[in-house]
Amino acid sequence: GNSVTQMEGPVTLSEEAFLTINCTYTATGYPSLFWYVQYPGEGLQLLLKATKADDKGSNKGFEATYRKETTSFHLEKGSVQVSDSAVYFCALSLLTGGFKTIFGAGTRLFVKA
Amino acid sequence: EPEVTQTPSHQVTQMGQEVILRCVPISNHLYFYWYRQILGQKVEFLVSFYNNEISEKSEIFDDQFSVERPDGSNFTLKIRSTKLEDSAMYFCASSEEVASGNTIYFGEGSWLTVV
Question: Measuring CA to CA, how many Å separate A54 from each of A3, A29, A72, A103?
């Protein structure tokens, strides 16, 4: 079936540290891949996306590359800030008769000053 | 930037009561969705809706749930007889079209607590 697996949290980093959140997927067909972010008390916001193999999505210093050979879409940021503390969801979208987004379990990130 | 809006932001209801959650999708979008997130768990797909009918639904979306687009702007989720396990954040979403690479935009969620 179609699924997304991401690293368990929480991830705790000091400000300016390098961030990697791993994400791998299983899909029939050719999905689009997304990272969504959920700040405390808020809804889901699209962070970045990639629609085909080797595409790199980037936004607000975050980036992720669609790797078809390893079925991965790892999220990275070179220098995190306290304001990046949130839950990050990796997701894929597929046309499956209908169209839906399948989410990973989410990874909570805490950034300490 | 256009956004999906949802009301109420938080509702507390007694078990067995009916609840209606409301959503205003982005105005030029044609495809609408409901997702839910039980506290601390994964975001789960409930249903997708297009051209005034359900196009896909998950096993969670049983006979207790229904969706409707009563007018040109609102999209509602009704839970007929709420159960304790329906307590969750419910997200409405919309997309312009159904195509590879198309982005689904989410609202801020309606937090439902069933007591």
Answer: 20, 16, 11, 21
Contact residues of A toward B, CB < 8 A: 30-32, 34, 36, 42-46, 49, 51-52, 89, 91, 93, 95-106
Interchain contact, B101 vs A52, CB within 8 Å: yes
CB B47 within 8 A of CB B61: yes
Measure the CA–CA gap between B43 and B54, rounded to whole angstroms.
20
Q: Quote the CA–CA distance of B35 and B58 in Å, as a whole number.
A: 10
Residues of A in contact with B33 (CB under 8 A): 100-101
Distance CA(B72)–CA(B85), nearest Å, equals 32
Residue type, B112: L
Q: Is the pLDDT of residue A98 over 70?
A: no
pLDDT digits (tens, 9 = 90+) for A36-85: 999 987 888 899 999 889 999 999 999 999 999 999 999 999 999 999 99
- pLDDT score, position A22: 97
Nearby residues of A33 by Cβ (< 8 Å), 6 or more positions away? A23, A25, A49, A50, A51, A57, A64, A66, A73, A90, A91, A92, A93
SS3 A84: helix
Q: Take residue B88 and report the two structure tokens written for it.
A: 């969750």
Give the C-alpha separation, B76 to B92, whole Å: 9
Taking CB atoms and an 8 Å cutoff, what residues of chain A touch B102? 32, 93, 99
